[in-house]
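Hi everyone, sorry if this is the wrong subforum. Our group has a chain we'd like a structural model of before ordering constructs, and none of us has done structure prediction before. Sequence below.
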Amino acid sequence: MMSDSVRILNANLLSITRIELLQSLKRGVLVTPNLDHLVKLQHDREFYDLYQKAEWVVCDSKILYLCSRLLKKGIPEAIPGSSFFTAFYQYHKDNPDCRIFLLGAMEGVAQKAMERINASVGREIVVGAMSPSYGFENKPE
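Answer:
Right subforum, don't worry. Here is the predicted structure as tokens:
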């Protein structure tokens, strides 16, 4: 992982381009902070601690990108998570070592996304999908 970063409101945003991220991201947790996340990072200690554990913290927002340009060392580009995900699985479609698990979405949506993604890349790159109910992390099972 690249070590250059820009700190904005308790988030260390990697100074990385989309292509560098595609080439470098082999494993780990990727978070794409937006303005709502930055606000939450100011007052939610658990959320802050989770962010500190993420290996990849990448600028998701054009607004954050523009703010970074006001600093001495700006971020080269915003990398929205929604479009990066498509680029990621397309980039790795022929890499048999790349496997993805989808977690989240309304019931049935993750499963449908898994089917569509696998069909679009011609292999089972998405190996599983789960759409748990809201607040599942707080329910012992």
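For your construct planning: DSSP finds six helices and six strands in the chain. The mean pLDDT is 87.
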